[in-house]
C-alpha cells in the first residue's frame, strides 16, 4: 500500500515525560524498597525478642540441670560457680529458710523468693550490680532453688549477630525484586509502547502500520493491538471511499460546469444563432438545476450530520401523508410511462413525528426508484402497521440489487460509482441522506435486494412508541 503523507516524517519524541517502562521500573523499585524496608524493620524488632527468648531458654536449661545436683552447696564452694560465670552467668542458691547465697543473690526480691519457695519456676528480668540481667530460677530438692542470671548485653550481642545475618537475605530479595520488576516492566511496556507508536503514526496519517495481534501477552494488550489493527483497516477503507466519493463529486460537478462554460463562451463569442438562443437557455437552466440539486444534496447531508439538526414533532396521519405524496408522484411516473401504485390502509395511522421530514424521505426513495424503473414497470408506495411500528415501503420493478449492493447501499457514492454508465444514477447521496434522516427520526431504513415487483425494496420503520392516540 502506498504510504500516506506522514509516513516519512521523523518520529515525534515525547519530551519532559518518563516512558511507561521507566515509570513501571520506578514504581516497582519504590514498592520493592518499601516492602523490604518494612520487612527489615519488623524483623529487626522481632530478632531482638527472638534473641532474648533464645538466651532465656538456654539459661533456663542450665538452671534445670543445676537444680538436680544433689549437693547444691558444692556449686558455691567447689568452683562450679566460676565455671558458670565464665560466660557471664551468675548463680545463687536459695535454701528452704529463704536465705540466698551466691553472687546472684542481690537480684532476688521477696516476691521472687516466694515464687521459688512455693515450688514454681521463675522467669524474670532484674537488676544486678547496676546491670539489667535475665533471671531464671528452678526449684530443687528439699525446698531449695537454683537461680541463674545473665547480662542483657549478651542478648544484644546475639540480636546483632542475627541482624547481620539478615542483611544478606534482605539485599538478595531487594536485588531479585528489582530484576523481576525491570523484566516485568519491560514485558508490559514493550507491547504498549508498540501500540502507542502505532496510534501516533495512525494519528499522523500513516496507514497499514498496525500489524497482526500478538499471540501472547496480557489479554488487554492483545485486545488493544487487535483494536488498532481494526481501526487501521477502517481508516484506510474510509479514506479510500472518501477519495472515491470526492472523485465522484468532482466528476458530477465538472460535467454540468463544462456544458455551462462551453455555452457561455459561445454566447460571449456571439457564435450561437438567434434561433438557438431558447434552446441554449433551456440547456443552461437544466445544467444549473442539476448543479443546484447536487449542492442541495450535499447541504442536506451536512445538516443531517450536524448536532443541532432540528425536528418538529407533532401528531401526523401517515395515511393522509402517503396519499398526498402519491398525487405528484403518480403524475411523474405517468410522464415516464411507469405504473405508480399506492397501498395504504385507508384509515388514519397517527404517529408523533416530523411529517415534513417523513415526506422528504419518501420523496428521496421514490425519486431513486423512478430513476431506475424501466417503462411499463411499477413503482409502489406502501404503508402498513407492523408489530410495534409503522412501515413505509418503496418497491420498484427495476433491476434490483445484489447482496453486496445491499451491504453498502447507504454509503455515500458507492452504488453511484458501481453503476455509473450501466444504469441511471443520481448524485450518489440520496440513499445516504435517507438513511441518516431515518436515524434522526428514531427509525430505521433497510434495503432488500428484490421484492414482489422484481426490483429493490426500501423499508422505513418508525417505532410505534411515538404513535398518537
- Percent of residues in helical segments? 40-55%
Query: Given the structure, what is the number of helices?
Result: 12
Biggest β-sheet, characterized? 5 strands, antiparallel
Percent in strands = 15-25%
How far the N terminus sits from the C terminus, by CA atoms, comes to 58 Å
The total of beta strands comes to: 12
Global outline: rod-shaped
Describe the structure.
There is one protein chain. Strand 9 and strand 10 form a beta hairpin. It is rod-shaped, with a radius of gyration of 49 Å. The N terminus is likely disordered. Helix 1 packs antiparallel against helix 5 and helix 8 runs parallel beside helix 9. The two termini are 58 Å apart. The protein is 55% helix and 15% strand. With 469 residues, the protein is an alpha+beta fold. The strands form 3 sheets. A 5-stranded antiparallel sheet has the order 2-1-5-4-3. A 5-stranded mixed sheet has the order 7-9-10-12-11. A two-stranded antiparallel ribbon has the order 6-8.
Task: Record the SSE blueprint.
Blueprint (H helix, E strand, L loop, with lengths): L19 H48 L5 H5 L2 H6 L4 E5 L5 E2 L8 H8 L4 E7 L2 E9 L5 E7 H52 L15 H50 L8 H29 L8 E4 H18 L3 E5 L6 E4 L1 H18 L5 E9 L2 E8 L6 H5 L6 H6 L10 H11 L3 E5 L8 E7 L6
Parallel strand pairs: 7-9
Antiparallel strand pairs: 1-2, 1-5, 3-4, 4-5, 6-8, 9-10, 10-12, 11-12
Helix pairs in contact: 1-5, 5-6, 6-7, 7-12, 8-9, 9-12
Quick structural gist:
The chain has 469 residues and is an alpha+beta fold. It is built from 12 helices and 12 strands.
